[in-house]
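[stage:ingest] chain + small molecule (zinc ion)
[stage:ingest] validated
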Amino acid sequence: MRDGLSYLVCTPLLAFGVIVATSTRSQQEHAAREGAWQGESRADGRRRLERAFAPFLSAVGLAPRPLITLRQRHTNRCLIFDPSGGASWSESPPIGDAVATRSGEVVLGIQTADCAPIFIFDPRTRARAAIHAGWRGTLGRIVERALTAMVVHFGTRAEDCYAAIGPTIGPCCYEVGPDVLEPFRREFPYAEAMIVAPTASGRARLDLVEANIRQLLACGLSRARIFASGLCTACHPQLFFSYRRDAKTTDRAGRMLSVIGESSS
Ligand SMILES: [Zn+2]
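[stage:predict] done
[stage:export] tokens:
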């Protein structure tokens, strides 16, 4: 909590001079009162996002660098941000659900309201990735694809990396049907480890965080280097937006911003 805004920071990564943080509802509610928030981000929405989240970025020590976001569409597409060729991103963010860079001059941001915001950091090369993983992205192995992109473009070794997973809808609340369960069972031999209490009707609850931890482990990260917030978005209405929970109310679902960037101090 700082400047009246509450947020989460991944404290184990601070030792490496990298800040991974997630906003809570307070940022958007503050921005809405100030007239700086106008709902969904569009192609031209980056400046609006930067304005709305400026107090959060300042509070966590990541201002005033450019905020790089994506037009998230539940794909498994990972982009590489190269500052020399990335100027156009500020005008029209590309479609994708993961982005990797080695530039310390920018902050990478992911917006979520139940899906998992996931960050990978390589302290040896300073490469990093920001990932948006809902069930579709997880099924498409977006975490594995982002780590592979870091290996190919930046010479990352998976065993050097750390990962952080922000607030995500938990297995307590994320009920899914056979349309989700069946493709997971086909894709992952270990699927039952992330499916909780299947019922006779075919519905069950999915553990998105565990599903993505499994992918990180399969790539070669050690579990001791993976930090998950352990907070369910649907269980904490005072702190987080939840698409699943809020869709049942008249509140229009907002989204939290989760970011990764080099500490400036
Ligand atoms: Zn929950």
